[in-house]
Amino acid sequence: MKTDDKSQNNEIAPKQSINIEIIGGPFDKITTVLEEFEPGQNEFIRPLESFGVEPRSVGEVESREVEVTVPSRLHPTVLDMNRFNLNKPGGGGLGFAIEVYMHAKVRSTKNPDIVVKGERTLLMQHYGLLFKQLLNYPGGFEIELHDHERRHIGMGSSIGSMVAMAIGINEVLGRPFTGRELRRIIGYNYCEESPIGDKYLLPGFETGMGAMASINGGWILGTDDLEMAYRIPLEDTKCIAFIPDVPTLEDEFTGKDTAAASEAELLLRRGRYLDSLQSGVKSQILLCDMLPAMIKGDLKTIGDSMFDLCYLGSKRAECETHGSFGAPVYGYLSALREIGVEITGMSSVGPTLFALTRDDETYSRVIKYLKSKGIADSRIIETSVDNVGARIKENGVERPFQTEGWLQG
Q1: Which residues pair with 387 in a beta bridge?
Q2: How many alpha carbons fall within 13 Å on the CB side of residue 226?
Q3: Which DSSP letter does residue 121 get?
């Protein structure tokens, strides 16, 4: 990591960068550089035509206000981590939405400034400036954002916040972009707050599953280049998400080594290497087992496929990072399956684990089991799968975003 000394007179610290050597297949060794940037910095805003979206502009300023609610996404697995890098989102995988929410309020203004309130202020400033530049929009925005405050533990607070802002900005500007285009804008401009300098952002790695799940709800199979292959609702399906006591828990909760070096090194080294060996097996499970089960609504077979995927490729690398070659995580996942849970897994890099079931007795047994393991109530989230996705409220009337006729993909 290249580091510059902070100024001695309370000036803003200079930008820094993180150099990560990537190891995928036996002959795949390159370096990715994560560079800090300021919100709205031009060289970190990708033009629309660079990722297949037709350029357009919004020249008129109309004062309008909407409220947006988006569900959290859980991300059980990536298909192949060799398919993405900085400035190249993708990789495919699985994602689903749960009834834990992020909220954004967006107002368009004639004042060209970006005024922000709430949490994730750097992200709000950047996305306001991002849309201004992409659309040559002369006005400004007032943005208020509140996430679910469970950050860097696999519950999608960053991507959910960006989705909520993007939908709100798009709506007050008269819907210049479709849902699929918004997903591409977010994917190719994905970023997170830097853990090094508190005034800067870092570019990140994005599969598109967060936007797919938060916008559409349900259980989703995504493929490369941010495309949604298939989606089903999981009706009457309860979800128990919980944060187990693993060796990495303290760092995860404080945000250390997550958005920057540690997580990126995990994804781009061990995860890529294992996917280079096993992405073919993962693809076969998804295509020949998972997809038919989704089409038939067979929750148990979906879960059987998911359990197999937990031991393969990059998901194995993610589970292993929590100590003892994954033993703490795999112990919970195996116990949940023996209890009778239909679908279980770990979201993203974790340590959040989840159990999906339609059976009330199984649900009760899971809660009893978690309490017997000493997991505090504050680390257990009892909720359900969200099958609606994003909602928009304007003038006191709420409507589902995914049922809008203009939405594509």
Answers
A1: none
A2: 25
A3: H
Looking at residue 365, its pLDDT comes to 98
Q: Is the pLDDT of residue 5 over 90?
A: no
**What does residue 381 show for φ and ψ, rounded to 5 degrees?**
-115, 115
| CA–CA distances in Å: residue 2 to residues 35, 93, 127 | 10, 33, 27
| 37, two tokens | 């940037």
**Is 197:13 a contact under the CB 8 Å cutoff?**
yes
List of domains in the chain: 17-234+388-400 (3.30.230.10), 238-384 (3.30.70.890)
Q: Per-residue pLDDT averaged across 178-183, rounded?
A: 92
- Cβ atoms of 224 and 90 within 8 Å: the answer is yes
Residue type (1 letter), 87: N
CA-CA distance, 162 to 267, in Å (whole number)? Answer: 22
pLDDT, averaged across the chain: 87
In tens, the pLDDT along 340-362 reads: 999 999 999 888 999 999 999 99
The model's pLDDT over 92-111, given as tens digits with 9 standing for 90+, comes to 999 999 999 999 999 999 99
Burial 30-65 (b: 16+ CB within 10 A, else e): eebebbbbbbbeeebbbebeebebeeeebeebeeeb
Q: What is the pLDDT of residues 244-254, one digit of tens each?
A: 987 665 554 44
Give one DSSP letter per residue of 298-345, joined into a string. Answer: -HHHHHHHHHHHTTSHHHHHHHHTTSGGGHHHHHHHHHHHHHT-SEEE
Q: Helix crossing, 272-285 with 299-309: angle to 10°?
A: 160
Which residues, other chains included, contact 284 with Cβ-Cβ below 8 Å and sequence gap of 6+?
Answer: none
Q: How many CB atoms lie within 10 A of CB 289?
A: 18
Name residue 39's amino acid.
Answer: P
